Amino acid sequence: MQYQEVLGLDHIKKHLQSTVQNGRIAHAQLFVGPTGSGVLPLAIAYARAILCGTDNDSCHAQLDNLAHPDLHFSFPMPSSAGSSSTKATSDMFLKEWRAFLLSNPYGSLPDWYKAIDIEKKNAEIRVAEAQLIMKKLSLKSYEGGFKILIVWGADKMNTEAANKLLKLIEEPPAKTIILLVAESDDQIINTIKSRCQVITIPKLNTAVIAKGLQKNMQLTEYQCYSIARQADGDYRKAVQFSQNSAEDIQFEQWFVQWVRTAFVAKTKMTAVNDLIEWATAIASVNRETQIRFLNYCMEFFRQAMLKNYKAETAVYLSPQSGFELGKFAPFVDGNRMMEVQKELQDAIYHIERNANGKIVLTDLSIGMTRILHSKN
């Protein structure tokens, strides 16, 4: 990735370019931004600028294939490699990583898990990976200049690994740059955050996403802007929408089943059993999918609230299942939305921390039934 291939973020690009031009590159930096905002492509473009400058053709050719000897990557992995008991490290999956990144630079962590078939495993950056990082960065750079480590999914680094890397992040070897990349800094320990220069990446605006779709997808200008509005700042999501993502169709079916069952629960005694069955079905998928679904639910409720308050220009959601947003909207006012958001955020919090999915989702379902039947 080069800066011109990274969508939008012009002010951040200028800042990063100035750090290279002025020789004021922080040795440890934390790039934080939501999925689909281009955090990883931006970090790679920055690394390219540091390693290659503007006139090093052979260096740029290596970066085009993500194969520069002084650019290292680290990312979340399962505890072991395949069916063996060997502790997994990123070096074991570099071929798959490069193929994934070259084909899907705006991909998310769940996309990566799917690409290497570890969706149902607990992926983290563990001590074995931390030891490998320390070994790599202790060596001299291959070409005599900078060496750079990009840690993608730094918020998936467990505490033991983070503590092991703490000294390295604080005082890396000469001409060593560490770029941590994360969707959120909530799970990154404070002692690491305090040692990094934080670069906050915002969501992409609609015009930037539409321009990216026009360049990369075979779509009309109207289609690009319509999809860009739905994507809510997430270019990855926009690409999925343009390809009619099967996941969102599944999410809509789960959501519609959920709210319809919650509505009849007051008069239909068996509806509680139906809600438990629904919770069991959702809990059977991996945690990352559960979290994505709950975020989808939150956005569905927000869209209903906007429609309820006649903010039609901000309403982009168009259910494909025949579910009428206009009839659902009157049940989602501001007070209910606050309660709904709290319930969903609590559920996400507990699932992220490995709580029993069936119990969390059953509790969520019962709580949602109470909210939907409460008085305005």
Q: What does this molecule look like?
A:
The protein has helices spanning 10-21, 39-52, 57-64, 94-103, 109-115, 127-138, 159-170, 190-193, 206-216, 221-231, 235-242, 246-264, 271-283, 287-308, 325-328, 334-352, 357-372; strands spanning 28-32, 71-74, 147-152, 176-182, 197-200. The mean pLDDT is 89. It has three domains: 3-200, Rossmann fold (3-Layer(aba) Sandwich); 206-244; 246-372. The radius of gyration is 23 Å and the shape is globular. The N and C termini lie far apart (51 Å). It has 376 residues and is α/β, with parallel strands linked by helices. It contains 17 helices and five strands. The longest helix has 22 residues, at 287-308. The protein has a five-stranded parallel sheet with strand order 2-3-4-1-5, with helices on both faces. Helix 10 (221-231) crosses helix 11 (235-242) and helix 12 crosses helix 17 (357-372).
